[in-house]
Amino acid sequence: MNIYAENILDHYWHPRNKTHPLPAENIKDGGRVTHEEINESCGDSLAIRLTISAGRIASIQWDGSGCAISQAAISMLSEELAGKSIADAESIKKDDVYSLLGVPIGPRRVKCALLGLHALKNAIKKFKGEPPTGWNDTAGSSV
Amino acid sequence: MLDTASIRRQFPIFSRKIGGRPLIYLDSAATSQKPLAVLDRMRKFYEEDNANVHRGMHELAERSTAAYEGARTAVHEFLNTRYPEEIIFTGNCTEAVNLVARSWGRAHLREGDAVVLSALEHHSNVVPWLQLKEELGVEVKWIDCDDHGRLRIDMLDAFLREGNVKLVSVTAQSNVLGVRPPLGDIIATAHAHRALALVDAAQSVSHHPTDVQALDCDFLAFSGHKLYGPSGIGVLYGKREHLESMPPFLGGGMMIREVYRDRFTPADIPQKFEAGTPPIAEAAGLAAAIRWLGQFSWENVENYERALLRSAWEALSSVNGLTVLGPGSSSPRLCSGLSDGMDSDVSGCLSFVVTGVHPHDLTEILGCRGICLRAGHHCAQPLHRQLGVTASTRLSVGIYNTVEEIKLAGQAIADAAGALRP
Hints:
The complex is a heterodimer of chains A (143) and B (422). Chain A has helices at residues 6-13, 68-81, 86-90, 94-101, 110-127, 135-139; strands spanning 32-39, 44-53, 56-65. Chain A is α+β, with helices and mostly antiparallel strands and 143 residues long. Chain A has a three-stranded antiparallel beta sheet with strand order 1-2-3. Chain A is globular, with a radius of gyration of 14 Å. The two termini of chain A are 23 Å apart. The mean pLDDT of chain A is 90. By secondary structure, chain B is α/β, with parallel strands linked by helices. Chain B is built from 15 helices and 17 strands. Chain B has helices at 4-9, 36-49, 59-79, 93-108, 127-136, 153-161, 183-192, 212-215, 240-245, 280-293, 298-317, 331-339, 359-368, 381-387, 403-420; strands at 17-18, 21-22, 24-25, 87-90, 114-118, 139-143, 165-171, 196-200, 219-223, 234-238, 256-259, 264-266, 322-324, 349-354, 371-372, 374-376, 392-396. In chain B, the strands form five sheets. Chain B has a seven-stranded mixed beta sheet, sandwiched between helices. In chain B, strand 1 and strand 2 form a beta hairpin.
């Protein structure tokens, strides 16, 4: 199966909720939190900015450069997240992201597909004042 | 002339299909494929000679020791070192550079001393020195390069005049741009200021002859697996007087002369730096690789690979939106360079970026067509940062590649780039 399916390329070419550049601050600021993660195997970086109100994600913005898979994944995830409670957002698993993408993700593309999820998880951790989690937590120990 | 058809038949992997298509392997800068001569030698070693080395009086121990020490002699001749004991076997090229940093560096460097690197370096020749910077307060200075990958040798002169430079550590060939710095000048200049010179020859050894006495370098490192040999073995060459003045690297069996409850005395070189059971079958495989490559003249290898790179540049430069990094970024220079012998200074690989197309996506699509290229920062983040790109795609060649393969790859790159752009 071609992983460059129409919906992947659509999100890649027309990313949803991408905001370039993100507001500069990278610290917890009232109901907002910004966090950036890097895929160290290719150097791609992705920053996510959550606006949280009454325990729910009121809005999500993100910015970054990357391959079609990483960009489509965060674009789809960002649509999924709007209005979700923090607890629901925290419960999103890698398989949920793979389902959104709807194409087979082999071992070499795991980090591409999950960079957005990893940034989301650690943005929420940062919001809650908890230490960041490693890739093993987001992607399993296979990466 | 090289008989490529005959060469290819000696590599079992080229009979393999990927997704029903023939394998087109253009990733030899990451690791080369292995000829039967190497595979057979390693299998024969395990089937007939396997024993530990330098231990035991039985026949197998003698045969394995002869294989291992014979490999040292083969590398000694391959690099034209003055003495065989100037060859230390390590796990890979990275470990060889680390050996110099940890042993020579810790013994001879103090806070305020400087190590000079070039912007072209692979992380393996960057991080060991940054570790010494953290540990000892050693300064790490960088020779910049221009957009063509040419080093600013004037910066080296200026650093050396400051008087605190103890080592200049540079690559013989960039693993991204294929650029070959002027090693002879760099080494002579370093020596004129009483600094030592280390050469990272990982990328150059399979493409050009290496003569450490002509270079007059103090250390030189490479790995077996980029030289048509096995992974798991690397080589450090060091001038005897340096190696003798250096403390051991790892401690354990083989590297000692005497051990007491409270002290030990180290063995002489090279054993001093070879703690534990070494990569014995890999050494035999490396020697076989050197013998195998030695059947071709360097002139033929260089001419053939130059023609491959020329066709690669032609194929790539016709792709819409594609920019070759480094020397290839300015087509007139590369063209003339290529036609009159592509210089001397580009070899082994070309890297490129395609507007709007991420290297991961490009190489994923190529991979589905059986075409293997490397994508990413190629363990050279400082260089990519200097060139202003996050990641690139690299096409690299070995003597088994053909112009036809490169043309097919060029067409596939154009197709994939077209499919990934709106």
